[in-house]
Amino acid sequence: MYSILPAFVSALFLGFGLYVLATKGLTRVSVPFALMCATTFAWQGTWAFLFQTTDAEVANLLVKAGYLFILFLPTTFYHFVTEIVSRRDERPIIFASYGLCVLLAVLLVTSNGVVDGFRLHFFGPYPKAGPLHPLHVAQTVLLVGRSGWLLIEARRQGRARDVRQLLTQCLVSLGLYSLAATDYAVNYGVDFYPVGVLFIALSLGILATSIVRYGLMGPYLLAATVAHEVATPLAAIGLHADELRNVLPVLLRGYRLAVEHRLCADGLYPGQLERLPTLASSIRRQVDTTSTVVEMSLASFTLDRLDRHSFAAYPIRACVDAAVDRFPFRPGDRDRVSVDAIDTDIQFFGSDSLVIFVIFNLLKNALYAIHANGSGQIEIDAHRGNGYCVVRFSDTGPGIAPDVLPQIFDAFFSTKSHGRGAGMGLSFCRRVCEALGGTITCESVPGVRTTFTIRLPEPGAPADDALRDPPALPRRYRIG
Fold it and tell me: What are phi and psi of 47, to 5 degrees?
């Protein structure tokens, strides 16, 4: 009877480990997770046989076989956590821990230093701790503590809500898994059934939920990791550019005086002295552009898992102003953009950051077309209409050809030359508008004007129902 629970958990871990490998393949996250499943399967499977045996020789063989996998279990969990939080700098500790596991495994097989036979309990034989067993316990405590710290730090630094929730569930799973260490007391003679198997089963359930609900091994986690790794150096580059912008004028003024008073020779190329003051602003502009692209890429992954409970009412004027203020305009481009006096009472219900990204995208596309055309202006206005906040974004660039217009919202479709666009901008805009219960449409008169019309539900309007059960929204086009 006492063997039923470990046998069940053993089969559960085996099945889930194989499922993850079959569906996710060999990745940096799936491999340590599969190792964790394999070690737990072997450990609990061995205990299922151990609790039933009455032969002393078989029991001695099983306690060492089962403990061989227990020795590696804390390290595999720690390895799994380091991949979840993308801490590759932890690899020296991982290798050292695996090395200690190998050493203890050799001692386990060749001596009674780690496990000194077994004791008989009411549920059956169970391993008896040897003189070196405390070394394994200390290793377990250190690895669990380190894993918890890594998860807490990653959660504290995480910006995306999904990432924080994912890490919280991993932290809870780690806590439950570590409670299985109560089984160590039985190794030292305390007579109770090793209930760690129950905590392990609960831990597995939480990890399973994380993998299914939050795509633990899917592209979103990868995108969030990349976004975090890119954002940190970008922020540092931006701060350095700001510092250069503040001190460079003083340095250049000193350089000019030194050259005038013949304290040093002028070693700069013609025009270089005039161009240097603009470098800091150029670097900052590129940093802001790259940061926005990273944020939009991450936002694109979150559209299918938006938390609509976090939606609120926002004035569309604030979103338009934020997009225009953040956009890295080239010299003279800001003068091409005209924003009408939008009433601050005009609001929409949804996510302000996503709408800012939509306007940002439209600005980028319109300015690209205007530069290719050589002339053009951009006009942005907004009004209310039938329960919607309606934003009109117009430009007087070259327009869009009739045969191209029906495809502009398709993913990977781009009219730009190779290497200048991936065809994701307008597709992202459409996905955002539909996720918010609205629409985006385009009308174009080639050589005259192109107008994008965004319709987003107003707070309290009947269109809010679309956010709870959004219908399939048709795409509309009109050629002028």
Answer: -65, -30
